[in-house]
Amino acid sequence: MEHTPNRLCAVVLAAGEGKRMRSSKPKVMLEVLLKPMLGWVLDAARGAGVEDLCVVTGHLEEQIKAYLGDTAETVTQHERKGTGHAVMMARDFLERHRGGKVLIACGDAPFLSSETITRALEQHNARGDAVTVISATLDDPYGYGRIIRSATGAVKAIVEQKEGTPEQLDVHEVNSGAYWFNVDTLLEVLNPDHLAASGITGEHYLTDAVAAIISIGEGAGAYAAHDKEVVMGANTPVQLHNLGELARTRIISDHLESGVNIPCTDGVIIGPDVVIGSDSTILPGTVITGRTVIGDGCLIGPTSVIDNSTIGNKVCINASQVRESTVQEGTDIGPYSQVRPGCTVGTGCHIGNYVELKNTTVGDSTYISHMSYIGDCDVGSEVDIGFGSVTVNYDGINKHRCSIGDRSIIGCNTNLIAPVHLGANTVTAAGTTVTEDIPDGAMAIGRPHTTVKDGWYQKKFGGRK
Fold it and tell me: Does residue 450 surpass a pLDDT of 90?
């Protein structure tokens, strides 16, 4: 493959099993705020300008590869022999980036931010070091590798908890497990001679690469992140929950600072990639995920779900769900309605209670007030769809589309047997089943004639009261 030294690259370590999680997923695929931890790390790297990504997989790697698709390369660490060994598996990837810089990060560290990655790289370049460790200062550093600096601030060593002297263990600056390396220098030490297996565990540790770089006279530095949570990971379900709660609180706080109104945060979950405009209100029990964008002055909730959707200004979504769709300005939805993937709802629409839309476009100022299913349909502007109307879009094998022209009136309990086209200004009588196209301005009536039988009750039941 092409040699690309001018492109920032990253190797993300994602081979771990996470036995204590007691999950059928690989550890990095466990979610914080409904987003895999691996996704947090990859997005942070991309946000810092990293273009080429290599993910080292291992345990249940099929799930990771399915999640990644073609967005990143993968290599397999068949035997879990430590972080240094994992990076060795990416040697071919690193060879293609000789002359460049590589970020090494753990796939289960969701609070590693783009800002931290960028600032660490800036320091790395400014100092001319061969390696820069991303560090943090903790009140309680127990269990973490300590960053030991020289008088000039350079890194002399990374000392693990079990190996440190009392003086070294008194240091509160710790290793986050993320690094910037000069690729050429990393490749020079990325071998068993410099990264010898531990006599206790048999594993090769990436911290030994830092020690090897120092031993050959190259510079080593540490960027002290302002956010101490950069070091946080999870090894148990309780710790994972705590990560999620911390992330939830931080994200809500950020939105509050940006002018979003969240009067009660109970049950409110907002994903890390969500954008919400000012003066919008989020009510309890609302879950907003994916790359959702919500405009200004909206009212969302209570108990609403919005995923990967675009919501215009001054939209109200009450106790309803919107997924992978667009809702334009001034529309209200709900309560108890569902907008399924592939929908676009125009401006000033009313999608009332118990309405389901699927793969449907709805024009401006259209009303679908209650109890209707409109799927695979193109609905015009200023259309009024009555109670209980249904597009019958599935013939048992294929889905078919319907269309309804502007300013049409669809009577209650109308069935549109797809594929049919209703022109502009058409009307269907209540109870009509439409099986053929209706031209502009026409009315369709397709219901059984009502037969009235006088005296039938007396004949059937006699004098019963």
Answer: no
Active-site annotation holder among 59, 124, 370, 421: 370
Segment 219-268, tens digit of pLDDT: 999 999 999 999 999 999 999 999 999 999 999 999 999 999 999 999 99
- Tokens found for residue 98: 């000789």
**Right CATH for 237-444 from 2.160.10.10, 3.40.50.150, 2.60.34.10, 2.70.50.80:** 2.160.10.10
**Which tokens belong to 53?**
């990504």
Q: Is 458 exposed, middle or buried (0-12, 13-18, 19+ CB in 10 A)?
A: exposed
CA dist., res. 143 & res. 372, Å (int): 58
Determine how many CB atoms are found less than 10 A away from the CB of residue 292: 22
């001679």: which residue's tokens? 193
Say if residues 345 and 329 touch (Cβ distance below 8 Å): no
420: alpha, beta or left, given left = phi > 0 and alpha = psi -120 to 50?
A: beta
9-231: CATH superfamily: Spore Coat Polysaccharide Biosynthesis Protein SpsA; Chain A (3.90.550.10)
Write down how long the chain is: 465
Categorize the per-residue pLDDT at 108 as very low, low, confident or very high, splitting at 50, 70 and 90: very high
- pLDDT for 15-35, tens place per residue? 999 999 999 999 999 999 999
**Which letter does DSSP use for residue 211 in this model?**
H
Element (H, E) at 184: helix 183-189
ω before 419 within 30° of 0 (cis)?
A: yes
211 backbone dihedrals φ, ψ, rounded to 5°: -60, -40
Q: Where, residue-wise, is CATH 3.90.550.10 in the chain?
A: 9-231
Q: In which residue are the tokens 């994992």 written? A: 86
**With 0-12 CB in 10 A as exposed, 13-18 as middle and 19+ as buried, what is 339?**
buried
Which residues fall within 8 angstroms of residue 310, CB to CB, at 6 or more apart? Answer: 292, 293, 325, 326, 327
CATH 2.160.10.10 in the chain is located at: 237-444
| pTM greater than the 0.85 cutoff | yes
Residue 370 appears among annotated catalytic residues: yes
Instruction: Give CA–CA dist 413/391, Å, rounded.
Output: 10
Sign of CA dihedral 291, 295, 296, 300: negative
